Amino acid sequence: MTPDSATGYSYEECTATADWLLKRAPERPLVGIVCGSGLGGLAKMLKDELVINYCDIPNFPQSTVHGHAGKLVFGTLKGKPCVCMQGRFHLYEGYAIQKTTMPIRVFKLMGVETVILTNAAGGLNQDFKVGDIMIIKDHINIPGFAGHNPLVGANDDRFGVRFPCMSDAYDRDLQQLVRAVADELDFSVFMRDGVYSVLGGPSFETIAECRALRQLGADAVGMSTVHEVIVARHCDMRVLALSLITNKAVMDYQSEKKANHEEVLETGALRAKQMEKLVSTVVSRIPNTPTHCS
Ligand SMILES: O=P(O)(O)O[C@H]1O[C@H](CO)[C@@H](O)[C@H]1O
Ligand code: HPA
């Protein structure tokens, strides 16, 4: 059997989508932002925006989750050209893993250098509070343990190498920048850093699963982001990822609490303003990759 990428999109298909978008975009974006559940308001920060519905974009998957609007927004943030996904794709929506991450490759082909991924996550670390923002410093790819990785299939060297390194996945300078900006904005009291673990969803975790994830070293749990990080690093974009702790994972058999998507969206709304301020200030300070003269 010949290995192929039949469940994903080829380089040519991603290029066709990127070219279609660039014909309409005001300029090439340098920063790509992905909005997590209930965090779609981040796109409202963009000025002079151009909004394109996913259903109008060739080859693009469609958002099916409440809190993910399904719109791609181009615009500038403090002068820096950005593109923002109001709505991401999750494994549990039924898409092949390679399809959930296809927009990240389209970002790359449009010229994006830095990707900022946001998500809503359940807090496993008992010191975390609802409303905390966690700078992701590392991840545990639980579906990856069973071979579910977006890079499975034939490797196209035009995107990246067969065996990409992940020990430097989360850009340390960008993490430092977020800490510095959070200090200036007086947000330090709700800033954390930690390890994000991804599960396939859509069912929330059992108590035993939460305890196991905590023992593995995870501080937060969710159903997204990691696959986007892997694809972004494969094609050599810088990555910053932030989790909004929207609920505390249930770790105790005496607890009456039940994880639910409504609480996730409500917490997103409560912290939206600070998340927007944090992300927009960070974006305005991201250094562009120096262009190399030959
Ligand atoms: O990770 P994002 O897209 O923020 O969404 C999170 O919120 C949903 C659960 O409420 C799941 O999809 C989980 O991954
Ligand atoms: O508790 C959670 N578990 C998984 N995904 C989530 N997304 C927000 N909260 C959670």
From TrEMBL:
Entry-linked InterPro entries: Nucleoside_phosphorylase_d, Nucleoside_phosphorylase_sf, Pur_Nuc_Pase_Ino/Guo-sp, Purine_phosphorylase, Purine_phosphorylase-2_CS
Binding positions for a purine D-ribonucleoside per the UniProt entry: 205, 247
Protein name: Purine nucleoside phosphorylase
Domain of life: Eukaryota
Assembly information from the UniProt record: Homotrimer.
Keywords: Glycosyltransferase, Purine salvage, Transferase
GO biological process: purine ribonucleoside salvage
Organism: Danio rerio (Zebrafish)
Pathway: Purine metabolism; purine nucleoside salvage
